[in-house]
Amino acid sequence: MQIITMAKDSKDTKKSKNKPAEKPVTTSPEKKKRKTKDDAKALVAISDTQGLNIPVPKVKRSIGDNIINHRETAALNELKEHRVMDEVKDDNKEPAKLGKAAKRGFTFVLKGLSKPTLDLIKEGHQNAVHLQKQAFSSVKIKSWHDDDEKKYNAYREARNKAEKKYENGLLVIGDGNFDAVAFNAQYDKHFFKDFSYSYAPGKVLANEDYTKLKNIELYEYCTSVINKLKTRFNSDSKVIITAGLELLTRDILRNAARNCVDAKKKILKVDHALNLNGDESNFPLHRLLPTLDTYVRYKALLKEAEKKSDSDSETKEDEETEKVRVPYKHYIGEAAKVVKRELVGNDCDSPFAKFNISADLKLFISDVISELCVRFGHAMLSEVQTRKIKTVNNEIARTIIYQLYINAGAYQHLKGAEEFIRSCYNRYREFIALRAKQNQDKKATLANE
Questions:
Q1: pLDDT tens digits for 76-126?
Q2: Whole-structure pTM value
Q3: Dihedral sign (CA 30, 36, 39, 45)
């Protein structure tokens, strides 16, 4: 054993003797050029193809499901969980594996549902019946003779005058609602004699009693009437709001990057973002951040961390942040690429070329976006209720962005914000049109095969 070991040692020594000396590492011009190209490729962001880094559907869900339609979302989730799915078995009487397209039967009853959900189903049912009665009224009035229609309009006008209220000689403006269905029922007690409520094409619900439906039919009816109560977003409003959040995200990152370089650091931290130097040209909405609960909370945490002055606190904080679910984490990283590219420009030796974004800063910006989504949601809800509409349109979306800048005292920067939003909107629409065409071509190819 000893001989073998010695032989092995001598062999290794021989190898080490014959081993050539290491050459000094030198980077060739071609390699430098290739590295520059790789760095440029690493900075390609989602917005280069889609116009936006922050996803439009995610922002829409944050505002819609959590704020504007939170009652409907909670009820629909409860209905889904309340189903008792049928167990499907194979020939060996084992639970069968069904494909994604396969539909399992289930049992569904109203008993056991919470009162808020039952009340919302009832509200949705009444709303659906009311809408059908409105359509029925319109068709019936159009079928009348001219004399009957004139008589009806005269009665309606007299009713409107009688309902006007005056105080001290001034007209008191009410809510402006005119319930045509209630008016028609009062005008003629047999007005809706021939009306029948169809809960589905070709299916009439006797006595408008939806509780007589069973299982799948009952479940589908309940989800249908609740969905009709939802406030919708039109195709453009959600893009405008997301573009506004994208602009704010980039401004926060740009401000943090400048503070990071000034401090001669390489990693963007929360304290760099919280340091607001009041430079409106680079960060128009700098007055907005201190008004957010997120800013106040992080500022307090930063002061607390400074008092402890623990050398490992930063590392531990970053490790803990990595475990927290950050809704917009990936997309903030993508926005950071765009900001880095803008700040570096063609200067490869720029101090901005070396910065990276920390996990705690991603969490901070994600929390800012989430808080603003809550604020936007409440503002939108107020707008649609005041205007008595069921859709968040472009006008409402633009008003919310305008108010953001006006309240932050940055109204003089509105033109720049509008141009940014318009640019993002156009590129996003181009991306959606291209994707739709690609999907259409793919379907056509599969159909021909």
A1: 999 999 998 876 665 565 655 655 445 668 899 999 999 999 999 999 999
A2: 0.79
A3: negative
- Token readout for 411 is 């109204």
Tell how strand 84-85 and strand 106-107 pair up.
antiparallel
| CA nearest to 39, candidates 249, 340, 417, 250 | 340
User: pLDDT for 189-208, tens place per residue?
Assistant: 889 998 999 888 778 888 88
Domain locations along the chain = 51-58+236-432, 70-143+191-230
C-alpha to C-alpha distance for 143 and 192, rounded to whole angstroms: 14
Q: Any idea of the CA torsion for 343, 348, 354, 356, to the nearest 10 degrees? A: 50
Task: Name the residue with higher pLDDT: 170 or 6.
Answer: 170
What tokens appear for 109 in the block?
A: 């009853």
pLDDT at 321 over 90: no
| Structure tokens that stand for 239 in this block | 């893009």
Instruction: Name, in order, each residue with C-beta under 8 angstroms of 246's C-beta and a sequence gap of 6 or more.
Output: 47, 52, 53, 54, 335, 424
Alpha helix stretches (DSSP H) within 43-105: 47-50, 56-63, 70-82
